[in-house]
Amino acid sequence: MTDAAARDELIAYLLERLAERIGCDPSGIDRDADLIELGIRSIDAVLISGELEDRFGVEIEPVLLFECRTVNRVADSVSASLSRR
Amino acid sequence: MTAAARTMDVNACASVLRSRSSDVIDLPAFFGQLEAASATPIPNIREQVERLLFFLGGERHIELRRASLAFFRPSILAMWQPQIARCAEDAVALLDGRTEADLVADFARIVAGDVVCRMIGLPAAGREDFDLWTDEARWLTEPLPPMRRLPRIETALGEFAAAVADAACASPPPESEGLPTFLHQNDDGLSAEDRIWLAMSLYGASSVTRHTLSNTIMTVASLPPERRSALLEPERRMAAVERLIAASTSFQFLIRERRGEAGPAARVEVPIGPASAEALGGACPLGGASVAGSINHVAFGAGVHKCLGAELARLIIAEALTALVRRFPRFAPLWPPSGFEPYVMVTSPIDFVCRLT
What we know:
The complex is a heterodimer of chains A (85) and B (357).
Chain A: H1 3-22, H2 35-38, H3 42-56, H4 63-68, H5 71-84
Helix pairs in contact in A: 1-3, 1-5
Chain B: H1 10-18, E1 22-24, H2 27-38, H3 43-49, H4 58-69, H5 74-93, E2 100-102, H6 104-120, H7 127-137, H8 150-169, H9 192-221, H10 234-248, E3 254-258, E4 266-270, H11 272-278, H12 310-327, E5 332-333, E6 353-355
Antiparallel strand pairs in B: 1-3, 2-6, 3-4, 5-6
């Protein structure tokens, strides 16, 4: 799988998990929107990072979601970790 | 959640910690929701966070805090002080004949662990296991614990609870020398279950003392030997220790949730460590102090969640530093620490190798 394809898969999964946690449709989430303004809470960050770890096999600290702040930036950071494996 | 608010002023920190409109993070609720949403059973974690006084609110907090405080009253600490001093002397004696030592592993960890084992009524022989379990469980109190750690924390807490329950059923260990122990007293109204999990919580909280002791050792090592004599003078010693704690506390910040009519709930980081160090105004921690408590700091927090073991922590740190400086007045680092503990809220060196002179 190419890096771009892996990133697309990552974003699709991230949007799906995020949508479930904050209660909306994945297609309605702006990938550059501030996750905090979208309503993400500490418990969401812990759960989503855990689900990403299980799915992609890479360690992700929950705080990453608050540091990166957007879906695109989280995907960039996790993609970088994946490509370093 | 909004961005963290920060203030470096010690009075402002105390004000936030005492405010009725700010409260501790509700860890029992957090882990209850996490268990439900992840479908991952975490019964031991739930039991423990129900007795973590630092993260508990309401009537239950008051009930458990009152019962625990009974054990930290001055009369009990006075009974224990000679043995605390002896623990410190014994730990220094283990360094005799050596030219260098890691004062974190070979001294701070031993003194703090031994004293707290004895006072709780745990066998000192189990200290290394208790420390391992406690280090794992401390991730519970970090702001955002990763899910991958929960199974390990769950296992550690289960093993720790079993060991503490065994100790509670047995007679107090001989090293407690007949002094009152937390696990074996029965006049405070605690249930057996509460006592076991509270004992674990207190042991875990005491690790902060160990980290702060490591930090104070680093601070003392950075000061000229002639200044260190303050730790050997009975009338100046406790004031000096207070200033060292303010300068070197391991707790960097506390988190509070601000609620009320002013707006949406906001998470506030209260930087008790930096603010306490700032309160010294750049003065030498071992210089000029003559009045106990003369330094206004919040290293132990403030308000209803103020560290209930603060007086014990002062005693342990005072006796440990006094014993160390008396035996090795010119101890000095051979090289800087190889790193610092990987926690967010509490920081201290992983090691601190010193020349012993």
